[in-house]
Amino acid sequence: MIFSRKNAGKWVASKGEKVVATSKKLDVLVKKIDARKDKKSIRFDKVPQHLNFVGFSYGI
Amino acid sequence: MEFNFIPWETDVAMEYLPMLPLQLNGFPVGNALVDTGATVTILPMELLGLLCVDLDKKKSITMSHAGGGTFSVIPASTKITYCIEHSGFRPIQWNGTVFFSARQDTILLGHYECLDQLVLTLDGPKKKIRVEQK
Q1: Mind listing the pLDDT tens digit for each residue in A19-32?
Q2: Where are the domains of chain B?
Q3: Which residues of B touch A4 (CB under 8 A)?
Q4: Fewer CB within 10 Å: N-end or C-end of chain A?
C-alpha cells in the first residue's frame, strides 16, 4: 500500500496493496466497510499530511 | 517477520517509512510508525471508541517534542493488546499502555511497553524492517 498524496489527511481502507475506500472520518469509513464480506481482511490507515514525524519525550 | 517500508508520496519526493501492520484490541489499525525517538506510544483520538477503552484523564501528561514545543497526551485506563501478524509466522502479541492525543494523525510506536518488547532491525538500503519478540 502507498500513502499517496491525493489521500493525504484522509483515512483509507485497504486490502493488500489496494485502497478500497477513503473518508476524512474514521467512523464513516468503518461503517462503509462493515457491509463488506471481506471486512476482516481490511486495514485502516490515516495517511500523513505533513512532514512532521519527530520523537518526543516525557519529562514535564 | 519482515515487512517492507511503506511508500509515502510527499511534495518533495517518495519517502519510505518503517511501519508495522498492527491490530490493537483486535481492530486492524493498519500501519504504525516505528518512532525510536518516542518515549511512549501515541494514538489518534479517533481510535478511542473503536478500541473499546476509556481515558484516564487524571493521568494526563505533558510531553515535549522536537522544536521545543509541548503537547498533552492522555493514557488509556487499561492496557491494550498489540498484535502483529504475518502469514507463515506465529503472531507477535503483547499488552501495553497507550496514550491518546487529539492532535495526532499517525500511530507512533514508542519505547514504553511497546518497542522495548521487540527486537527490531531496520534495513535502510533494502527498505525493510525485521521484527522479533524475545
Answers
A1: 999 999 999 999 99
A2: 2-133
A3: 9
A4: C
